[in-house]
Structures are given as structure tokens and as C-alpha cells.
């Protein structure tokens, strides 16, 4: 549905011009950012998992500081505890003995600067990507390559999907979220179009099963990172709160999200 | 009320030797009735003006009087009348321009009437609107009123307008008494009103009379021409973007007339850069049939139909617009009691076909409106207006259908909603003394949300819940649904809306005015963008959404000086609105069948100072308007543990513009050339800029804290237009003029928005300004015959 906004913007752009300007922005205090995405790809054991911790930085800074020296643990309801160990001072924390299980509830504990952050999430299953269709004269300009990644939504269950289109050549990723409100039980597709991709380009398409709360989080997140953010048709930007809570000092809330998904990967070569 | 009745009674008793003179005032050539004509009896300092249908009535003691009938651009009539019985006297005014070799603007009707208690009102005639230079040379009502004090727009490419810090959905827009739901074509580049078909418009910003209701911010009351009942005439214009044609003439001489107007933009014009099969255009049609049955009865049938159409290849097709059909009957019960009965049907239709995702979407609002209005000219000291209004609404919030049989989309219908709105009102205009004029009134409004299918029920009636752990608002899960019969009432609201204004004349040239009005609004436009889009839908008040209630106070000083050459209007206002809806963070308004789950009731307030200095007459005329104002909104938590929206703090509304300066002027160089100019300066629109960045899932994400704490750079521009009339003395047959105009003369890149993202090459964050119109020259050719 967001495409409607893009179309209206498209009409405006015919008259309009864009230029980069200098702007002084107010900086807020640094906050902890928890990038905890645990992914279990179908057909793998899912043992190796990574969690990234970093801090917020002034908007025009060119580097993002890592959050180092934290203690990171994930537990499940079966009393398994998985310790994530930092690679040097990188803010990247790894575990190589994780046990994923569909429907299991997992708890995240992060201790950073003497403050305890926690989060809970359920490992959501996902259906496979069945096929990909390509159309070469798509988009509003008629020269974009459109991809449709088809999957079948399980009937009578509320499902939420996060799709990632990874253009290997550009090292760029594109995310989109879907719900099944209007498509329950149907064979339906995730949609991607780009005018810069060409023959033989490799596109890695990932479908993540996510919870309703994660869907809502990503929905806002993607709106706020949309290239068109701040355009006249965009919704008001707001502080984006994830599912992580600072138990020690609630006002110093963290950003980011603890997501745990089953995933299905489909590698497609542009024809 | 008792007092009022007693007053009427008193007046009748004491008027034994009083007689009424009444009638209709029209233009000589076309027999078109004229609104707001002054009928003045100078010897006894009495007078009145014609109403929306050209009717006047005044009751005076027996005697012989001189009467002066005057109106802008027309020759005044002065004659002596002997009043020894009730008489009917119709006047025809002749166009002042016709008998004069040189063009002289005689008197400007738009200047304020310092005696009348009505304040915060601006009148514009179709000629003033046509003089104002606008982008792409298309004269436009909304652009014209945005030059008035207290009126702003969200900028280029934004629909609607904002009055005194109010939102765009808080304006009542009436075209021949019918409500218009979306006033814009092409996303705000043009308004839906064809300036050729317009006779008169008034914008009420405060002190709004009790005969208007249903919106809390302003009333834009527009009347269309009836059409020439003497001779056939046509006029039109050819511009770069659109062309228009209007034809009018008699159905039966002096008794009936027709008017047909049409306007259309050119298809493909907007997409010349792309060699593909795209269409973008709008059109609208205005029709009016008028018939005078006899001296006491007139009937009118008017219609409006407008559509915007966009389509891109076969991927996308978007159509939307208003339709209005209106039947009115004017009846004179007596020479003191004028009535108008209106039956109005109006609808707003929106459709979108998205072939690339294989579904279409249709939404809309329909309503049937009955209005019965009376104007009762009791004496020259007291005039009453009373009436009733009933509106039945049907809302279609949306319906989704697959476009192909293989589509993965299931058909889905959002639940229709129904409502019934009623009002009774009484307005009195009361001349207490030579110096003191009062107007006071009361409106009783009622709103009934009628039964519908699948009404959600929530625990504690709370459709939005606060998650204390995450400190966010979330949708509540309904605990059940109920289906109610259409005849059931889900929720009823009643509001008493008092209105009062007072004018005290300090001396012959100046006065002070005070006003108060309370108003209620039962419909809400769901929009969480900075300005409305055609896709936004209206929703009625009900179980979970409360009606908006406004209190507004205004104080003003009015002065005419240098023999009415100049006029000054200085006003200050304060207003507050209860139950202004606000949206939880990340609210999804599109295709949402349970919008109550994303809405919280907040409040809004605005205050400001407005100045309007006008030069009314002469070769150079125009105005300078300055507004200083503040407009804020707050949605506190419902309980102490909730944080509210924006932490419960007051924040600037998107239409908060601290300073707003507009100047417009026209100079009649000679009979052939006329120069028009406007200049605008506005404080930049409030916006939310990021206060930090972070990385998540490999994406760079801006972090936002308070809402609307930043502003876009200030908006300013200068426009110029040159009107050239090759044969100014020609008054018969083909007459024409050219308009050459330049919009944004010094090519300022006014920011419509600032967006934040990564540079494609470096990957570093940057701020990008989007500006819509640079300098735009245009030309149009206009004719009449």
C-alpha cells in the first residue's frame, strides 16, 4: 500500500528538484542499540549466531561506535543458556552452540555499563519461497526489472513475513514486511523492482517468519529509513521502540530489536 | 429565548406605522442576482444588504426617504421612495465600466463593514481572485484565500488550507450550500472551484453564525452564478495546463436561466518526459438552472461533478472526485420572511487500481442533506435567521477486490458506517443603538451513529492499550463484535453551541468587535501526513471517537480612513479544541477496519494576531496581511502511568506558522495593461529531524526524539502577472484579454520537505531538500462573448 504514496510523489517529482543541503541538527545522548537477529535457515543446524551491540551517533558522523565489553546471554525455557562472546572489541558477540526450536520462547540478557537490558521473543516458523517470476518492463518508467517471490500463506493462522532482497553485486539490501490480512491462505508474492540490476546478477531472497510485534516494529523502521522519509505524504517520524527493556534505568531505553526467526533462502539469477 | 420572543412581540406592537420595503437586486444586463448589495437610507442612517439570493427587506416608519443602492463596480442608484404601505421594489444595477471611458474602481465591497457585528470574515469577488497571479496561470480560490490573514497552506503540492492554526479537515467548504469533501485537484495544485462560475465567496474564520455548523475551524461559503436570463453569453480561457468554457443564457426571458461550465486539464501534459502510455488530468462540470415561478417563488437546480484521473501504463489507475446535486426552493412567506429549502446530495469517490499487485480499492462518502433556512426581517433593528438541517451519511471506508482471477488478494470489505446529523439554530442580528450592534445565536446539534455490522467491543471500552514495558501504545484485541440494525443507535451526542458577537462603533470610521463561538465537529479526516491526500477517508464520531469541540474568542479593531480609501482590520483570537484525534506511533490508516485501535483523543489550541491593511480604491489597490500565531496539540496519557503521544508534551501542529506575511496588489496602468503582484513570506513548516543515527540489520536508521521540534527553512516567493486587454472599449461581441504571469520570480527553492538518507556514492548520511516549483512562467488567453 505504501506504493500509493510513492506514486503521488512521482507526480510531484516531475516539477520538483532535489538538492543536498547543510543542516545543523541537535544531538541526543548516546543509547545502546541491540541488533539481535537470530536466524535459523531451513536445512541448517542454526548453531552459529551473532548479536551486534552498538551506540547511536550524531546523524552526520561517518562512524558508528560499537558497544564493547557487554555480557550477552540468551536462554530458553528448557534452562539452556547460550553465552555470546565478543570478537575483540568489535561489539560483535558470537555463540556457536545455539539450539533453535520452532515455537520456543527465548530470553535475551545484555549487561552493558552496569545496566541490565532484557527482551523476549518466540521463534517463528516460515513457509518456503516456491518460485520467482521476473518481468523486464516493469515500474513506472517501464524499464525496471520486477521480481515476484511466491509463497503460500498457511490458512486461518495470522502470519507475518519479513522479506530481504540482497543484491550481491551492490552489497545492498532491501527489506519489506507483509501481513496476511488480505491474502490469508493464498499463494502470494513479495515484490521487488530495481532499474539498476542486469542479466546474471545474483539476488539472494530471504523470507523470515516474524511475530506480530516484530512486523509492527519493522513496518515503522522501514518507513523511517525509506529514501522518501520526510516527504509530504509520509507519516510523522517518531521514536522507534523495540522489544528490549532497560531494567535498571527504564528512561535510558535501548533501540533495536530481539528477533528470532526461521528463514528460507532462495538464490535467483537475473535472466 | 424568552427575551427574544418578547422583543419580537414588542417590535410588532410598536410598528403600527411602519412599512416594509423588500425586493430583489440584480444586474441589469444578465438579471443575475447580486449578493451583499448595500441599500442605504441616509436620512435616518438605516440600511440593509441583500442576502445570498439577492433578496432584501427592511421595515421603516412611514415617510418619504432617499434610498441609495450601491455595489462594487456598478453605478449607484439614488431615488426617493414614499413609504405609506408595504412595497416591493426591485432594482437593477448597471455595470459601471460600460459607461465610462476609463476604468475606475468605484468602491470595494470587500472592505469591512465596521457597523456589522460579524467579524473575522473575508469576502472575495471573482474579479479579485482572477487578478491574483498563480502558478501556471490558473486563477484559483484556495490560492487566493491563502493570501488572507490567518490562512495558510502546507505549501506547493499540498491539498487543503489551514485557518487560524486549525487542520484542513476542520474547514466547512460549501458550494451552493452543499458540502465539498476534497477541495483539490492534482494533489493541491488546483482547487475544484471553477472561478468563472463563482459569484461570491466568504470565509468565516471566527464569530461564525449559528446557521453554520459541523466543522470547528472555518466556513468557506461559495455561491455559484445563476446564469444570464436576458441573453446568451459565453466566456472561457485557454491556458497552459487547462482550458475552461462557461455558457449561460435564458431558459425563458427574465424568468429562467441556465449556466454550464466546464474545465479540463490536458491529458499527458504532466508526463511529457516519459515516452510511455501515461495519463494525468482533471475535469469538472458546473451546472445551474434557475427559474422564477412567480414573485414569491424561485427554484434552482445546481450540480457539480469533478474528477481527477491518473494512470500509468497498465500498472496503476487512480480516479477521485466530488459530485453534488442540489435542489433549492426560495419562497417568500411574506415581505419580511424569506425561506430557502434545500435538498442536497453529495458524494466523494476514490478508486485505485493497482494492477502490479493485482487489486483495486474503492472508498467514499455519500450524504443526503436537508436544509430549511428562514430569514426573518422583523424590524430595521432586528433580523432573525433560523432553520434546521439534517444530514444522513453513509461512509464506505474501503473495499478491496482482486483484479484478476489468479490474484493472491482475497476480496475484503471494510465495514460501512452510517450516521445521522441534525441541527436547529437561531441567529439574531440586533441593533441596540446607533453605536451598538449585537448578533447572537444558538445551535443545537445532535449526532447519531447508526447501527452497522461488526462493531468491535473492547475490554473497558479501550481500543488502544498502553504497553508499560515497551512504553508504546498498541492495538487492543477486540473481545467480541456486535452487529446492529441500521435503525439502532450506537452512540448519540448532543451539543449546545452558543455564538455571539458585538460591534461597538467608536466613531464614524472605527469600531471594536468581540466574538465568541462554540462549535462541534462530528466527522474526522483520517490523515497522519502533514497535509491531506485524496486517499484519506472520513470517519464519523462514535463509541470510540468523540466529537471535536471548539471554543473561540476573538477581539478586533476596524477602521476605515482617508475617505474609505484605506481600511485596517486588526484581530486577535484564542481557540481551543477538545477531542482532537491523534495517532499512535506507526499507525496504519490504510485499509484499516478498526481505526479506533490507533486513535487517541487529544486536544489542540491556537492563538494569534492578524492584521489586514487594504487599499480599496484607485488605480493601485490590494492588501497587506500579517499573522502572528501559534498552533499546538497535545495528547496526554489517559492514566498517570501512560506517557501519551510525544511524552504527553504539547507539540507544534504541522500548520504552526509563527509569521505569515502576504501582500497582493494590482495596478491599472491604463485601460489596456494591468499589473498584479503578490509576495508571501511564511515561517517554515514544523518538521521532525533526526537527533542521532544507528545501525540495525545492516541498515542505517535515523533516530527521532520530540515531535515537530524543527522547522523547514522559511517559505517566500514573489509572483507577477500582466493582464493585457487589446480592445478595452469593446463591450459587445468577442472580447478578450491575455494574462502573462511568472510564479516565483526570483526562483527560490522553497523546501516542501527535507529527507534524510545515505549518499549513493559515499554511503554517508545527508539531508536532501525537495522543492517543487522554481520559476514558472505561463500564459493564458481569456475571452467572453
Q: Please, could you describe this protein's structure?
A:
The complex is a heterodimer of chains A (271) and B (785). With 271 residues, chain A is mainly beta. Chain A has 2 helices and 16 strands. A 12-stranded mixed sheet of chain A has the order 12-11-14-16-2-3-6-5-4-7-8-15, with helices on one face. Chain A has a 3-stranded antiparallel sheet with strand order 9-10-13, with no helix packed on it. The longest helix of chain A has 14 residues, at 2-15. Chain A is globular and about 55 Å long. Mean pLDDT of chain A is 88; it is low at 1-13 and 228-232. In chain B, the strands form 12 sheets. Chain B has a 22-stranded antiparallel beta barrel. A 5-stranded mixed sheet of chain B has the order 9-16-17-12-13. In chain B, strands 1, 4, 7 and 8 form a 4-stranded mixed sheet that branches. Chains A and B meet through helix 1, strand 1, strand 2, strand 3 and strand 13 of A and strand 46, strand 47, strand 51 and strand 52 of B. Strand 1 (17-21) of chain A pairs antiparallel with strand 52 (765-771) of chain B, so a sheet runs across the interface.
Q: Work out the helicity level of chain B.
A: under 10%
Q: Give a count of the beta strands of chain B, DSSP E runs of length 2 or more.
A: 53
**Order of strands across the main sheet of chain A:** 12-11-14-16-2-3-6-5-4-7-8-15
Q: Strand fraction band of chain B?
A: over 45%
- Can you give the mean pLDDT of chain A? 88
Might you state the CATH topology name of the largest domain in chain A? Answer: Immunoglobulin-like
Largest pleated sheet of chain A: 12 strands, mixed
